[in-house]
Design brief:
2 domains, 6-stranded mixed beta sheet, 13 helices, alpha/beta, Rossmann fold
Length: 375
Amino acid sequence: MSTTEVQPVDFATLEKAADAAPPKAIDADRPVWIFGAGGFGQNLCTALRSKGFDVAGFIDNLNQKSTALGLPVLDWPTFSAKVSNAQVAMGLLNHYVGFHELLTKHVPPEFAGELLMPWDTYEVVHDELGWRYWLSRRSSLLPYLDRIDAVARVLADDTSRHLLYRIAAFRLGLDTPYSTYLSPEHRYFNEFTMKPGAITYVDCGAYTGDTYAELLAEPEVDCRRAYLLEPDPQNFKALVENVSSTRPEAVCLPLAAAQDYSILSFNSGNGEGSTISSGGDLHIAAVGLDQLLPNIDVDMIKIDVEGAEALVLHGAERMIKRCRPALLVSMYHNPEDLWQLPELLFNLCDDYDYYLRQHQFNTFDSVLYAIPRSN
């Protein structure tokens, strides 16, 4: 599928296409090479080895190191000259470069072996790799295409419906070109969310204040009050430093937004990608927005909390009904976010319009915009 071509939204046909093109199987009798020697590639190597597969080495065009995990690291020209008819597993999973670009720009056209994408290998090593954002087995997605279809019918414009369809097709391995697609609208602050006048803003997952800085740069918006929640200690320190130099009246809170008050284990991701985890190395305070701001009128809430978005929405039910804020909700941290988060919002938000836009490669940073209709 072309990244610019508008496709029909037909989830029944998509299910048939998936049945006709099952995931590629790993040949246990042949060595596996992994394209990408970074974190995900090395995790994949360890997972494959634990399942008894023979991993021969890594392919990495940057080639900054000659070995990884005791295995050779070759660039593509060297690999192509030394190895023939190999099976290569994609060992990259991030939002920096789309899979389609990696395949077209880096894999030599003369490569005649088998290329396994992350959704192929995840079928075999899902338990060993564990949670990897939206990555899932087909059995975790195909049975829910009817619910995704129902979500698509509620979305407010054709663009949103087509994007939801293509996200599902991409994650089923049927639309790799979509990996490079980016919506033209600015992330978070765009035609859906920007209304002239003074607003109160809540940022759940404020990171170092980058999104808040973007809001302040919007000429039509006067952000009178802001509540910025960030539980990661390193990020929070940077957040306070960044905000104090620009808008000292903003309130920075070293908290995680959640359903209600609790102390949670927290897995620090060295800045980006920190998550709540039962085996986390830190303990943090979490709080529901209804508890934190019970009487504050709020106009806009951004929620990007590494998979806990549903908990935050549950913890803000009274605020949503009382204030009817615009909601900017990330929906790529879990496979089930494609249907569960929209369904939750449809139940919570009365008289809203919903728009889906894609802001980073490989379906990372898919954002659902819930916008209250004018009374």
